[in-house]
Amino acid sequence: MPNIMRAEDIPDFKDLPSVQGMPQGCAWGIWDKNGERDHVGSLNLLTPEIVLEAKREIQTGVSVSLNWPLHNVEEPGFMRRKAGHKLVDLKPHFVAHDDELHINTQSGSQWDGLRHWAHQDTGLYYNGLKHTEISGLNPVPHNGIDQWSKRGGIVGRAVLIDYASWAEQKGIQYSAISRHCISENDLDEIAKDQGVHFRPGDILIVRSGWVKWYNNATASERIKGAKEGHEFIGVEGTESSIEWLHIRLSLAEQSPGPGPRLEAAAKMSAHTLLIVPLTSKQYDLYSYN
Q: Among the four 28, 178, 213, 242, which has the fewest Cβ within 10 Å?
């Protein structure tokens, strides 16, 4: 199949070629070119035309960092190591300092790359990459975030869907540390209320309220809910929600908390559905308050 760059050239969800052992909607192969396997997935949607169109959205020129400080996650979940920072004094040789960081990248603000999570039934990562090809004796550089850097990083238009504020206005009560699902219908209704019109290549940002919960929780509540508990709010992990993303051609889904992992309502994991077949990136633990 020829390399597809333009969003309008991508097949409809139901017409995506089937891939053995994978769920419907698997986008493997559509960006392969000249017999070479693609490594960046839906980042291919960020064409120069899409980026130039995004530039027109800039109103004030003010930039805002969404990253959480490294110390915010006091007790990382899933047996991950807490971030460590050491200040190195270079005296008496120089009047200067160095910094040393020791961190599990999943314990703070981060993007989930295409080598992070495999399709659990087959053990395959995006475009058929095997587990042993990443951490075996002869690893290959396929699907790495270095491939994102080679194509110029990630630059595009992001759209914010503020579920937390919308739910408050609607009187919807929920716990951020439960399997509370944000459906595609919710996303459409919020977008309509906010006057948001999705475009190909959009980076979808969903404010779920998880960071707000964490910031207001006590130390013991954080340990119980974020370290020991594995249930979080997030976008529903179903085939219909993945088709919704495909139709709107969002290249990434972002949520301020571990919620996008979503084992939502015991259905398919959004990790499995987004990162593996749909080739989208997920990024977690960001602050939109």
A: 178
CB 70 within 8 A of CB 85: yes
The pair phi, psi for residue 71, each rounded to 5°, is: -80, -5
| Angle (CA) 166 77 154, round 5° | 60
CA distances from 15 to 6, 30, 246, 250 (A): 17, 12, 12, 18
**Residue 192: burial class (beta carbons within 10 Å; 0-12, 13-18, 19+):** exposed
3-class SS of residue 168? helix
Q: Two tokens at 180?
A: 């509370």
* DSSP bridge partners of 127: none
Tell whether the torsion through CA atoms of 15, 19, 24 and 28 is positive or negative: negative
Output 3 or 108, whichever has higher pLDDT: 108
Query: pTM, whole model, 2 decimals?
Result: 0.85
In sequence order, the β-bridge partners of residue 102 are: 84
Give CA–CA dist 225/63, Å, rounded.
32
Answer yes or no: is pLDDT of 2 > 60.
Answer: no
Length of the chain: 289
Distance CA 81, CA 84 (A): 9
Encoded tokens for 195: 């006057």
